């Protein structure tokens, strides 16, 4: 039922948009509506099986101390999150799900994470410094 409602709504949007920009005789409108709906329904029912993409490297070799290897294209990176979003429009959770990775799969190389952690511990963000003379 929900699929039919979505197809009807999509059909209405497409027809309204088309008719607002193109002259169409009133007698042809029912046929145009039906053919638009039928085309959408055909698109919806025919599904093309997605080809299973192979990882650029074996998953076991994708996490190194100094870098992570992107399974999408094999690029070596210190941090995956921004790269995935920018190049593949993918969130870390979508990436993990696509490749069957565990929820704790790192998005930052271990050595880089340790370096950033040590810097943060030496210079705590938001620490209130006492004012001179206060």
Automatic annotation (TrEMBL):
GO terms for molecular function: DNA binding; zinc ion binding. InterPro entries: ROS/MUCR_sf (IPR041920), ROS_MUCR (IPR008807). GO terms for biological process: regulation of DNA-templated transcription. It comes from the Bacteria. Belongs to the ros/MucR family. This is MucR family transcriptional regulator. It comes from Paraburkholderia madseniana.
């Amino acid at each position: 039922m929900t699929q039919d409602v979505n197809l009807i709504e999509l059909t209405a949007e497409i027809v309204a948009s088309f008719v607002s920009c193109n002259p169409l005789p009133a007698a042809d409108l029912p046929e145009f509506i039906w053919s638009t709906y039928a085309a959408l329904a055909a698109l919806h029912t025919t599904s093309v099986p997605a080809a299973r993409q192979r990882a650029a490297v074996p998953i076991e070799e994708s996490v190194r101390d100094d870098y992570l290897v992107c399974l999408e294209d094999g690029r070596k990176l210190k941090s995956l999150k921004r790269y995935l979003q920018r190049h593949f429009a993918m969130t870390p959770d979508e990436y993990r799900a696509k490749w069957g990775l565990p929820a704790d799969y790192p998005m930052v190389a271990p050595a880089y994470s340790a370096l950033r952690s040590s810097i943060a511990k030496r210079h705590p963000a938001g620490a209130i410094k006492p004012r001179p003379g206060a």
